[in-house]
Design brief:
The chain has 475 residues and is an alpha/beta fold. It contains 13 helices and 19 strands. The termini are far apart. It binds iron/sulfur cluster. Iron/sulfur cluster binds at residues 194, 196-198, 201, 203-204, 238-239, 275.
Length: 475
C-alpha cells in the first residue's frame, strides 16, 4: 500500500479526491486482508435521471478504489443508497428498506452502509436516520457526491459515523471517475439545480439554485465519451432550456446542441427535461436541421387547468401549452411528446381535471407519467387548503390514466410498417431470441437478433404494434 497518511491532501479539486481515492484504496485493501476476502459494493438508485447520473459517478469512484461490483445488495460489503425525496411514499419505502437491511446486517457485521442524495438534504430525514438506523455509517447530500472517497477515508480511519451534508452547492468539480451503466449511451450533466420553484416541488430546496456547466467542459466530456465508444448522449438538467441563463458569454441550449452535434462518434443526442415556458423556436429549428437529435421531447404539463397551473407557479397557461405542442407537432411531425401529470393538487376540482383531459386529447401524448400529488414539507403547496379526498383522487386519477392510455396507444400504432433506426440495448427480458432497443422517438422495439448487436444502431422494420412497444424485423 502506498503510504498516503503522512502526505498533505491537495487543496484543489479534483486532485484532492484522487488523493483520497488512492488512500481509500489502500485502507480497503487492508480491511479486505483482515476479512480474508476481496471487498464488493452495490449501488441502489432511486428517482430521476440526475440521480442515475450521480450514481454512475459514485460507481466510478468505488471502482477506482478497487472494489468489485456485486449484483446482490444483501451480499455486498459496501452498500450505497442514492435517495429521492420527490414523493413521500418513496421516503417511506426507503425507511422500510433500510429497516429490513437492519436485520440482514447481522449476517455481515463488517458492512459499510452509505446514504446520499435528495432525502439527505432534508434535516428531518437525516435526524430520523441517525436516531433510528444505526447501521448507517456515512451520510452525504447532493452537492458533495464527488467527496465519496474522502468521506470513506474519514470513516475507515476513525471507525466513526460520518455525516457531511451541505445546505448550498459548492464548486462544480469536473473529471471525477465515472462508470457507465451502458457502454454505448451516457447521461451528461449540462446544469445542476433549479430556479423555478414550482409550488409542489422540493427539487430547488434539495438540489440548490440553477448552475450551468461551462460549454467547453460539456463538449470535452462528450468527446471523451465518444472516444470510449458511446454513441448516444442524454444532456441532463432540471430545465435544459434555460441552460446558460444569467451567465456572461455562455451559449444557449440550442447552440450547445449544435456543438454536441459536431462531436464525431456521437450519433444520437437526447435531452431531459424541458420546461414548457422556456422551450424556444430556436430549439425547434435546431432539431429540424439535425440528423442526430432524437425525435422526443419530454414536456411536463402537470395540469391542463390554467387556474391550477397558476397555483403551481408553472408560468404558462393551458392555451400557451397547447400552442407550443401544436408547433412541435407541425414542425417536427415524427417527434413524440411525453409528459408528467399531477392529480390531486390542493383546490383541484373535476372541472380542472376536464381541462387536463382536454389537453391530453388535443396533444395526443405519446406517453405520460401520472402521479398523485404528494405534499412535501417546506414547499408552498404543502400548506395550501383544499386537499382533495382519497376517493376523489382515485376516481379522477383513473379518468386521466384512461385518457393517457387511449392516446398513447393511438400514437404508437402510427409507425407500423415504417423503417426506423434502433439502438440495441440488450437481450429481451421476455424472450432471449429477441433483442430490445429504442427508436429515436424513444419507443421500444423487440426483434430477432443476438447479443452481437448490442450497442449498434440498426434499421428495423416495425411489423406489429403491441400497445406500447413494437415487434420488428432487421433489414
Ligand atoms: S422546474 Fe419545477 S418541477 Fe421541475 S425541478 Fe424545477 S421546481 Fe421542480
Amino acid at each position: 500500500m502506498k503510504d498516503q497518511t503522512n502526505r498533505i491532501p491537495p487543496a484543489t479539486e479534483p486532485e484532492r479526491q484522487y488523493y483520497y481515492i488512492d488512500l481509500a484504496s489502500g485502507l480497503l485493501k487492508e480491511r479486505a486482508g483482515r476479512l480474508n476476502h476481496s471487498l464488493t459494493f452495490h449501488v441502489t438508485t432511486f428517482g430521476c435521471q440526475m440521480n442515475a447520473k450521480d450514481s454512475e459517478k459514485m460507481y466510478g469512484i468505488m471502482d477506482r478504489m478497487g472494489l468489485t461490483y456485486c449484483e446482490e445488495e444483501k451480499d455486498a460489503d459496501i452498500v450505497l443508497f442514492n435517495t429521492c425525496t420527490i414523493r413521500d411514499n418513496a421516503n417511506q419505502k426507503f425507511y422500510g428498506h433500510l429497516g429490513s437491511l437492519n436485520d440482514k446486517n447481522h449476517r455481515n457485521p463488517g458492512r459499510i452502509v452509505m446514504v446520499c442524495g435528495c432525502m439527505m438534504q432534508e434535516p428531518e430525514c437525516v435526524k430520523r436516520i441517525i436516531e433510528g438506523y444505526r447501521i448507517v455509517n456515512i451520510i452525504f447530500g447532493t452537492h458533495n457526491i464527488y467527496k465519496l472517497a474522502e468521506l470513506m477515508c474519514e470513516h475507515l480511519m476513525s471507525g466513526r459515523f460520518v455525516s457531511d451534508v451541505w445546505d448550498r452547492p459548492g464548486e462544480i468539480v469536473e473529471d471525477i471517475p465515472s462508470r457507465l451503466k451502458y457502454p454505448f449511451k451516457a447521461g451528461v450533466n449540462i446544469m445542476y439545480g433549479c430556479n423555478n420553484y414550482c409550488t409542489y416541488c422540493i427539487v430547488p430546496y434539495v438540489r440548490g439554485p440553477e448552475r450551468s456547466r461551462n460549454a467547453k467542459d460539456v463538449i470535452c466530456e462528450c468527446e471523451k465519451l465518444a472516444s470510449e465508444g458511446v454513441k448516444e448522449v442524454m444532456l441532463l438538467g432540471q430545465n435544459v432550456n434555460s441552460y446558460g441563463n444569467g451567465i456572461k458569454d455562455c451559449i444557449t441550449f440550442p447552440e450547445l446542441l449544435k456543438e454536441v452535434e459536431r462531436v464525431e462518434g456521437i450519433e444520437r443526442i437526447r435531452f431531459m427535461t424541458s420546461h414548457p415556458k422556456d422551450l424556444s423556436d430556436d430549439l425547434i429549428n435546431v432539431m429540424k436541421g439535425s440528423s442526430k437529435i432524437c425525435r422526443h421531447i419530454h414536456l411536463p404539463l402537470q395540469s391542463g387547468s390554467s387556474r391550477i397551473l397558476k397555483a403551481m407557479n408553472r408560468r404558462y397557461t393551458k392555451e400557451q401549452y397547447l400552442e407550443l405542442a401544436k408547433k412541435i407537432r407541425d414542425e417536427l411531425p415524427q417527434t413524440s411528446i411525453t409528459t408528467d401529470i399531477i392529480v390531486g393538487f390542493p383546490g383541484e376540482t373535476s372541472e380542472d381535471i376536464d381541462d387536463t383531459i382536454d389537453v391530453i386529447k388535443q396533444v395526443s401524448f405519446d406517453g405520460a407519467f401520472t402521479f398523485v400529488y404528494s405534499p412535501r414539507t417546506g414547499t408552498p403547496a404543502a400548506s395550501m387548503p383544499g386537499r382533495p379526498s382519497g376517493e376523489w383522487i382515485k376516481h379522477e386519477f383513473d379518468r386521466v390514466l384512461t385518457a393517457v392510455q387511449e392516446e398513447s396507444r393511438k400514437r404508437a400504432g402510427l409507425f407500423t410498417g415504417s423503417i426506423q433506426d434502433v439502438l440495441v440495448e440488450g437481450i429481451s427480458e421476455q424472450d432471449p431470441s429477441l433483442v430490445s432497443g429504442r427508436m429515436s422517438n424513444n419507443l421500444i422495439v423487440h426483434f430477432p437478433a443476438d447479443a452481437s448487436l448490442i450497442g449498434k444502431i440498426c434499421d428495423v422494420k416495425l411489423i406489429d404494434c403491441r400497445g406500447f412497444y413494437y415487434i420488428g424485423e432487421r433489414l
